[in-house]
Structures are given as C-alpha cells and as structure tokens.
Amino acid sequence: MPDKIASATSYCVSGALVCGGSVYQWVQNLDWNTVAVISGIVIGIATFIVNAWYKRQMLKVYKGAVERGILSPPGQEE
C-alpha cells in the first residue's frame, strides 16, 4: 500500500510542477494592460446584469404590494 501512495504522490507532484510551470510561463507573458481592460469590461457587464436582476425583483415586490393594497400606485397618493 505505501508503494501506491508514493507512486500517486510522485505523479501528482510531477503533474503539478508541469502545470505550474506552464501556468507561470503563461502569466509571465501576459500584457497586463489588456488584462485590466478585459477585466473592467467583464466586471461592468456583471454589474449591469446584477443591477437589472435586482431592479426586476424590486419591481415584482412593488407590483405585489400595490396589488395587495399595501402601497398606492404612483401619482394616486391621498
């Protein structure tokens, strides 16, 4: 059994070093200005989607409150 553990550990460490080396090489060759621009675009799109979802949920809650009579519709306040 210890042979299998040692063998598996050896393969895992070897694979991690190969993958880690290739990841390090890839990260080293990145243009960080491009990464910043792409990250900004992705974060902007994600913010828009979350905001639209949140506003839609709030509109559902507001419509439900108006239908139940908890709130009055806009422009019809007493």
Describe it.
Keywords: Membrane, Transmembrane, Transmembrane helix. With 78 residues, this protein is mainly alpha-helical. The protein has 2 domains: 1-30; 31-71. Helices cover 82% and strands 0% of the residues. It contains 2 helices and no strands. The model has no long low-confidence stretch (mean pLDDT 83).
Keywords:
single chain; 78 residues; mainly alpha; 2 domains; 2 helices; elongated
Task: Give a quick precis of the structure.
The protein is mostly helical and 78 residues long.
Sheet with most strands: none
Which segments are poorly predicted (pLDDT under 50) over 5 or more consecutive residues? none
Query: Helix and strand succession?
Result: HH
The number of helical elements comes to: 2
Measured distance between first and last alpha carbons: 81 Å
What's the Cα radius of gyration? Answer: 27 Å
Helical content stands at: over 70%
Task: Quote the average pLDDT.
Answer: 83
Structural class: mainly alpha
Write the layout of secondary structure elements.
Blueprint: H1 2-28, H2 32-68
